[in-house]
Amino acid sequence: MSSLNKVVLAYSGGLDTSIMIPWLKEKYGCEVVAFAADVGQQEDMDKVKEKALATGACEAYVLDLKEEFLRDYCFKALKAGAIYEGKYPLGTALNRPIISKYLVEIAKKTGADAVVHGATGKGNDQVRFEVSVMALDANLKCIAPVRTWEFKSRQEEIAYAQEKNIPIEVSVEKPYSIDRNLWSISIECGVLEDPWNEPPEDAYLITTSPEKAPNEPLYLEIEFEKGEPVAVNGKRMNPVEMIVELNEMAGKHGVGRVDIVEDRLVGIKSREIYEAPGATVLLTAHKELEYLVLDRETFRYKEHLAIKYADLVYYGYWFSPLREALDAFVDETQKRVNGVVRLKLYKGNCVPVGRKSPNSLYNFNLATYDPEDSFDHRTGEGFCKVWGLPLMVAGSRK
């Protein structure tokens, strides 16, 4: 039997963490403090708190972290252009470090010996939680019941919940594992575990299928200041207002569905689907503005950095010196990322159709082929000779 007296559980009210409170008390004989982070999962957080207490938690904390999550985590990734393996906008990966931050704070406040998470032994979240906790407080223990408990399937977990009279929304008929926040929704399990199966419509929560999306396109104008989105169609908004509105508008037009077989950190390929309508709009618009305002070498170097940044987030290294150093570079590049991008949303597509900026590097007189053309075409001959000189020398030696 463990000597633990008190633990802080990252509590969502979902299947795993719902049965975790009685299980922890039975197995460890400890008090359980529940902590639920509101990152935009569209749940009644008062009921989540009540459920935690009714299930046996000695205390329950619910914190509204939506704005901090978007501003200090998602928007940093947005400015970096971080998208994992070219598809995943990292919503779940980004909310794990902020949850870990407050797990540690509440553990200190309540005098807990350990923190508990509901991640599996072959998933990414176990790493994100535990590495983040290590970085913030190396003395705190981490407990992961799913890695050790007796349940071998979600069906067995459902049976245990029914035995303990714990209300759950998941069912054997629709056994999806869903993690939702403002930036993205991740959906796995069930029929999705066969990568040949097309995702059924009942797996999606906030996006309309492209076939059923409106027949008329929607145009949006997204304004940025120093790389951060500040307005939609001329209306200034805080981050939460903006994402809520973009999720609704873009989701209605079928934008933001992702279906990917991704590489988990532990080396397993996993089929996941995501919904990220608002994030898709912002990531698309932000990159389009960078095309306009960043010089070629900075833009291309930043493309490489974006891959590394996404890997750091995905692999649980948010609280690393490297991520902080990359942020310093990114913030320097974003000083010029000011302007407006116009997007056309239609039948699942998000297409940039216009862009403007006071820092634009586009010069009409240099680019045009009209009579206003100011480029000296005679310089082209010398440029070609100098540029091709290494190939000319190598070719002459063949």
Distance between the termini: 77 Å
Integer tally of domains: 3
Which superfamily, in CATH terms, is the homologous superfamily of the largest domain? Argininosuccinate synthetase, chain A, domain 2
Strand line-up across the major sheet: 3-2-1-4-5
Q: In which range does the helix fraction lie?
A: 40-55%
CATH class identity of the largest domain: Alpha Beta
What does this structure look like?
The protein is of the alpha/beta class. It has 3 domains: 6-70 and 88-175, HUPs (Rossmann fold, 3-Layer(aba) Sandwich), CATH 3.40.50; 179-356, Argininosuccinate synthetase, chain A, domain 2 (Alpha-Beta Complex); 366-396. The chain contains 13 helices and 14 strands. A 5-stranded parallel β-sheet has the order 3-2-1-4-5, sandwiched between helices. It has a 5-stranded antiparallel β-sheet with strand order 10-9-8-13-14. It has a 4-stranded antiparallel β-sheet with strand order 6-7-12-11, with no helix packed on it. It is elongated.
Jot down its keywords:
398 residues; alpha/beta; 3 domains; 5-stranded parallel sheet; 5-stranded antiparallel sheet; 42% helix
Task: Give the SSE layout.
Elements: E1 6-10, H1 15-28, E2 31-38, H2 45-55, E3 59-64, H3 66-80, H4 91-110, E4 114-116, H5 125-136, E5 141-143, H6 154-163, E6 177-180, E7 185-188, E8 218-225, E9 228-232, E10 235-236, H7 239-252, E11 257-263, E12 269-275, H8 277-293, H9 296-314, H10 321-333, E13 339-346, E14 349-356, H11 364-367, H12 379-387, H13 389-396
Parallel strand pairs: 1-2, 1-4, 2-3, 4-5
Antiparallel strand pairs: 6-7, 7-12, 8-9, 8-13, 9-10, 11-12, 13-14
